[in-house]
Structures are given as C-alpha cells and as structure tokens.
Design goal:
Elements (H helix, E strand, L loop, with lengths): L2 H27 L4 H15 L11 H22 L5 H7 L3 H13 L5 H17 L1 E2 L2 E2 L3 H20 L7 H23 L3 H8 L1 H28 L2 H7 L2 H13 L6 H18 L2 H16 L4
Antiparallel strand pairs: 1-2
Length: 301
C-alpha cells in the first residue's frame, strides 16, 4: 500500500474513533436526545449528497431496507447505548459485527464457514464476554444490549448489501441518509417530545458535533474508505481498520476517563485477535506471526 493511501486510512480510522468520543459527549454530557441527534446527522448527509439520489438501483425496497439497517438501526442503537456505556466498552463489543456478519452470510447467503472463521468467531465472542464480565458473573447492561442491537442491525444490512449490484458509494450514502432521516425523525417525534427544543437549547456544541459527524466523518470518511476498498483487497483494508477500536480505547481513557483494567485489556486483545483471524487469509496470518516473532527475538544492536 502506498504511504499516501495508508496515511489516508489512518486519518479515516482516527476520525471514526473521534466520532465515538464526540457522540458520547453529546448524548451523555450534553444530554442530547439520541434519536434526534441521529436524525439530524443523516439529514445533513442526505442534503450533502442529494444529487446522488437519482436513478437508484433496483429493487428499491431492498436498498431502503439495507439503508435503514446500516443507518437508522445501527447508529440509533449505538447513540442510545453511549448514554450509559463507555466508548471503550462499546468499541470492543461492537467488534462482534465481523463474526456476526460472517455467521449471517452463512445462514442467508450460504457462504462457507471454515474452521478458521469459527475459531475467529469464538475468540471475538470470548473477548466481548470478558468485557461484560463482573465479579458476580456475566452482566449485560441495557447499554451493552443496545450495542448488540446495533451490531445485529448493521450486520444484517451488510449481508443484504452483498445481494445488491451497481451501488456507488455516494449513491448508497445518499439513500442511507434519506431513509434514515425519515425513519429517525418519526421515531424521535414519537419517543422524544421536545427534542428540537432540546437541540436548540444545547446550542452551538450540538450543531458543531452533528455537522462534524455528518460531513467529516460520514461523507468524507466513508467515501475515502470506499475509495480505498476499490483500490486494495478487503483482506488488506479490514485488518487495518482495527486501528479504530484501538484509537477509541485510547481516546476514551484519555478524554472521557473510561475505566480500562486487565479484564478490559484481555477482552480487547482476544476480540481483536478473533477479528484478525476472520478478516485475514491464512498466509497473511502466518506472515504476521513470523514478523512479530522476528521483532521480539531480534537482539538490539
């Protein structure tokens, strides 16, 4: 990978990680209604890429279903979760999206589920359970259940996306923005009375955060990511995106003072190892192991 492209990927991962912290700040510390926050975010995205709404791929109902799953469902559940869970915990548990997508691809699309992928699924699940563990046993809070709901809807949308052909990145973002904004506006009106007044009362911090999330993180970040996916193999890009949860953990500890003990470190390491096993080819894994072994056994000059 060219250094310029690698630097772009690092920037995208840092933007995504920063967005996790910003979203936590908005919904937990500024007390913004999470559904309204998500609705405004997607509304701005839809306006920014409005010209790409023309000539949608068929069938339209499937595109709308995918858009709602990957947009309104996934982000709304995550924003609601961040009211109570730390960005670090959410980042680790959300790594279940990779094995969940793999398993749903097996159930829905009939893709092969190899022993290597089963091992990766097992490791990622073990790491996530370690994060949810307390001295009295596994404790799944309401917030972590919302993270799991975000994982489930996002994974379902990703699997259904594999059945769509000819969808361009900006075109997809336009339809995700429009469909999600409509759905989330209706849900916010039903379950968050006075949400608009709350957003206005919070002031410029709310509008700056939601604009950053929509234009910089979503429009720029996701477009850059899709561009990199088109230039390089997914098996190369996917493992590198693990910089996002690692950066989220670092920023969470530094900025929002997330608790991070040995249990969290173990869970993060095991979950990320599972994701790597699923995302990387066997020969890539062996090369990584040899490189790490050489780095640890090489004596200093």
């Amino acid at each position: 990978m060219a250094f310029r492209d690698f630097a772009l990927l690092v920037l995208v991962c840092l933007l995504w990680a920063t967005n996790n912290i910003v979203s936590k700040y908005v919904v937990a510390y500024l007390h913004a209604p999470p559904l309204f926050y998500a609705a405004v975010r997607f509304g701005i995205v839809a306006l920014a890429v409005f010209p790409w709404l023309r000539n949608p791929p068929r069938p339209l109902w499937r595109l709308l279903l995918i858009a709602v799953c990957m947009g309104a469902g996934s982000f709304a559940f995550m924003f609601m979760a961040l009211r109570t869970v730390s960005p670090s915990s959410a980042a680790i548990v959300s790594q279940l999206m990779v094995p969940t997508t793999t398993f749903l691809s097996f159930l829905i699309l009939g893709e092969r589920l190899s022993r290597r992928r089963l091992l990766g699924i097992g490791l990622t699940l073990t790491g996530a359970l370690a994060v949810m563990w307390d001295p009295h046993g596994v404790s799944i809070s309401a917030g972590l259940l919302l993270v799991l709901a975000s994982v489930g809807t996002g994974s379902l949308g990703a699997v259904l996306m594999k059945q769509m052909d000819g969808v361009k990145p900006l075109q997809f973002q336009a339809w995700v923005g429009l469909a999600s904004a409509v759905v989330l506006t209706a849900l916010s009106a039903a379950f968050e009375p006075g949400a608009l007044q709350a957003g206005i009362a919070i002031g410029w911090k709310f509008w700056l955060a939601v604009t950053f999330s929509a234009l910089i993180v979503s429009v720029f970040g996701h477009t850059a990511y899709y561009w990199l996916i088109q230039r390089y193999e997914a098996n190369l890009i996917s493992p590198l995106t693990l910089m996002t949860p690692l950066a989220t953990i670092g920023l969470g500890v530094a900025i929002t003072h997330d608790p991070f003990d040995a249990r969290m470190a173990f869970g993060a390491a095991v979950a990320l190892a599972g994701v790597l096993i699923i995302a990387m080819r066997p020969n890539q894994i062996m090369l990584l192991i040899y490189a790490l072994r050489g780095a640890t056994t090489r004596s200093p000059k």
